[in-house]
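Sequence in, structure out. Go.
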Amino acid sequence: MEGLKRLADYPEYMWFLLYCEGTRFTETKHRISMEVAESKGLPKLKHHLLPRTKGFTTAVQCLRGTVSAVYDVTLNFRGNKNPSLLGILYGKKYEADMCVRRFPLEDIPLDEKEAAKWLHTLYQEKDALQEKYNQEGLFPGQQFKPPRRPWTLLNFLFWAAVLLSPLFKFGFGIFASGSPLLILAFLCFVGAVSFGGRRLIGVTEIEKGSSYGNQEFKKKK
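Output:
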């Protein structure tokens, strides 16, 4: 609450990202979430978890007058691909479609219960959007394809060259020395760093994610 109040006085433009489902989608979490929806008399969702309304309603109340609108974003990757950081690291190409809808903040009810009801309705609409995308392969409404931005790539290449040049220089010096022991130690170091990085990135995969939202896990504990 105090953090949101400080954001209300933030002097610059800002974006506040809020993931109302609270955790990543898995079949187990979805089943448990729909059991909760049934017990509360809420409509079941096919492609989403039940949104957690408290954080949303609190943010709306605290940031009203500061934030002008809520943007609902639904993202889908083409070909039913599940992107990962490892896939990006290996150079895999992913194409995505995004549906963005804007809701002025004054259109969201002030009352906490009514704002929670509004959020549940929004997620029902998101579920219908997802179902339509699965059937037709695109979102309804006006289509927009952003242009390519070559300067972004050039900026990345420039800073990569600046930051990695000392490492390349060091590696070149190792190989130029002709010492088999130094070369072997350097290759082992590079291999260990590469292996460790991949292991750390692998932890972010969905099936290795947290048990947050999984009531069965808590019962077992």
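Check: The helical segments are 2-8, 27-39, 53-63, 85-89, 112-136, 150-177, 180-202, 215-220. The chain has a mean pLDDT of 84.
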